[in-house]
Amino acid sequence: MSAEPGWADLELAQRIAEAKTLSGAARALGVDQTTAARRLAALERRLGASLFDRVGGRLAPTPALAAVLDRLQSIDEDAAVALAALRRAEAELRGLARVDSVGFVLARVLAPALGAFARAHPGIVVALHADDRNARFDRRETDIAVRLGRTGDDAASIKKIGEARFRLCRAIGAPPAGEAPPLIRYSEALDGMPEMRLLDRLRPRARVAARTDRLDALIEAAAALGAEAMLPEAVARRDPRFVIVDGAAAARPIYRLVHLGRARVAAVAAATRWVDESVAGWTRETERLTVP
Q1: DSSP character for 181?
Q2: What is the dotted CATH code of the domain comprising 96-159+256-275?
Q3: Looking at domain 7-92, does it have CATH number 1.10.10.10?
Q4: What pLDDT, on a 0 to 100 scale, did the predictor assign at position 55?
Q5: Of 51, 53, 58, which is closest to residue 21 (Cα–Cα)?
Q6: What phi, psi does 132 have (nearest 5°)?
Q7: 101 DSSP β-pair partners
Q8: Which end of the chain is more exposed for a tag (fewer CB within 10 A), N or C?
Q9: What residues of the chain score a pLDDT lower than 50?
Q10: Res 184: pLDDT
Q11: What is the tens place of the pLDDT at every residue in 38-53?
Q12: d(C-alpha 120, C-alpha 235), whole Å
């Protein structure tokens, strides 16, 4: 039994009706005239009816075809719209997604997860930008931001995607028993952070050896000086240079922000899902390590 005509066959009939010649239809479809004639003959055999009459050297639709030409034109237009949408999506999936966060999140959470994202979306470039200040979405400085704490921005949507717990940790190689190790703290402007308030309660009179406004720098400074510092529990349990010295914890929620005007761009939407999954996975792994 002959196969039912498909859209390619119907498109041929529609193109011939538009061009009124086989040669014109063949050019529109990117085939030669012999191929177009062969396909038309095969279509008419399957339908058991003639689709065109030859009038004065031109091909005119028979009444049967003329009755459905408007419908074929509508299908053709819908197909063109769908194809354009697919091409836009493909172009967007080969675009750029800018992700802004503190250096610690970029280095310890997102950068290690880039392999899986790159394999799934080889055409997307992820630009990781370390910045401790709030991203300016109104200036289109970034597409996605990850923050350790809630920030308000009318130009961005916001979602809590995890939590970071901070504990008092001591670097291996700290001063021997009886000598109090120094502290590494955030800069004074960040003294109000939950982990700094807890540090004040736990070590109210300890000597401060250094301050920094970057968590990644604080970690390295503590290790270099044999100091104590409030570190993310994930670091303390993964980094052999540190031990946890107190069970009290200060929690900070992790929020993801996305530029409202860019959220539906395919590349940004894909990167947003990756950011959410990466942070959630990092949080689950930390909880697993916490269990004795």
Answers
A1: P
A2: 3.40.190.10
A3: yes
A4: 83
A5: 58
A6: -90, -10
A7: 130, 146
A8: C
A9: 1, 91, 291-292
A10: 95
A11: 888 888 888 888 888 8
A12: 28
* Residues 19, 21, 26, 27, Cα dihedral to 10°: -60
Amino acid type, 54 = R
**Cα–Cα nearest to 169, from 241, 217, 224:** 241
Taking residue 178's Cβ as centre, other Cβ atoms within 10 Å add up to: 5
Largest CA distance in the chain: 110
Report the residue count for the chain.
292
- Same topology between domain 96-159+256-275 and domain 164-252: yes
Q: Does residue 155 contact residue 138 with C-beta atoms inside 8 Å?
A: yes
**How do residues 203-234 score in pLDDT, each as one tens digit?**
999 999 999 988 889 999 999 999 999 999 88
205: DSSP letter: T
Structure tokens at 116: 């899986």
Q: How many CB atoms lie within 10 A of CB 286?
A: 20
Say yes or no: domain 164-252 is CATH 3.30.428.10: no
What residue ranges in the chain does DSSP mark as E strands?
A: 52-55, 58-61, 96-101, 125-130, 144-147, 156-171, 183-186, 208-212, 228-232, 242-259
Strand, helix or coil for residue 27? helix
Nearest one of 59, 62, 43 to 51, comparing CA atoms: 62
Q: For the whole model, what pTM was predicted?
A: 0.63
